[in-house]
Design goal:
Strands 1, 2, 5, 6, 7 and 8 form a 6-stranded antiparallel beta sheet that branches. Strands 3-4 form a two-stranded antiparallel ribbon. The longest helix is centred in the first third of the chain and has 17 residues. The protein has 176 residues and is an alpha+beta fold. It has one domain: Peptide Deformylase, CATH 3.90.45.10. Strand 5 and strand 6 form a beta hairpin. It is built from 3 helices and 8 strands; from the N terminus they run αβββββββαβα. The structure holds nickel (II) ion (NI). Nickel (II) ion binds next to helix 2.
């Protein structure tokens, strides 16, 4: 296990559409090692989600772990560490929900993004078993943000208003 370097906006891998994970790869030692590295990296950098392209692995794999309670995103519900392989998302609630998002690949900034308030995701889990989750609000935002990375998109592409992109220090000073 190892903490990997998170690549930042400007690195071409962040703008690529990632390849599906071959189901046969899921049980392998190499896959387990990559996943362990992603978990270590997420914990070391202190985020709530990480997509494989962020460590320069252009495959459709993401992890999300949201500790409940007060975070830098305010008071949020929790989601235990969940692994998503080849996720497919369906919007189940179009009502827009606005969140001041941040991204480990765009460090030091926060931007206001409005996304559908409810989604259903079908994906494989870390054993390659199908799993379905329905999430709403903040957790639906985290999920959509992470899966955007698999399609070469960053939250800054989705700003509701370009004026609502701020350095985190200014965000904390002026909008809290
Ligand atoms: Ni991100």
């Amino acid at each position: 296990m190892a903490v990997r370097k998170i690549i930042r906006m400007g690195h071409p891998t962040l703008r690529k559409v990632a390849q599906p994970v071959a189901p046969a790869a899921i049980g392998t030692a190499a896959f387990a090692r990559l996943l362990a590295d992603m978990i270590d990296t997420l914990h070391d950098y202190g985020g709530v989600g990480l997509a494989a392209p962020q460590i320069d692995e252009s495959i459709r794999l993401a992890i999300i772990e949201v500790p409940g309670g007060p975070t830098r995103y305010g008071e949020v519900p929790s989601l235990p560490l969940t692994v998503f392989v080849n996720p497919r998302v369906q919007v189940i609630d179009e009502t827009l929900n606005g969140v001041w998002e941040g991204c480990l690949s765009v460090p030091g900034l926060r931007g206001y993004v409005e996304r559908p308030g409810g989604v259903r995701v079908d994906a494989l889990d870390r054993q390659g078993q199908p799993q379905t989750l329905e999430l709403s609000g903040f957790l639906a935002t985290v999920l959509q943000h992470e899966f955007d990375h698999l399609d070469g998109k960053l939250y800054i592409d989705r700003l509701a208003d370009p004026a609502k992109l701020m350095f985190e220090e200014e965000f904390l000073r002026w909008t809290q």
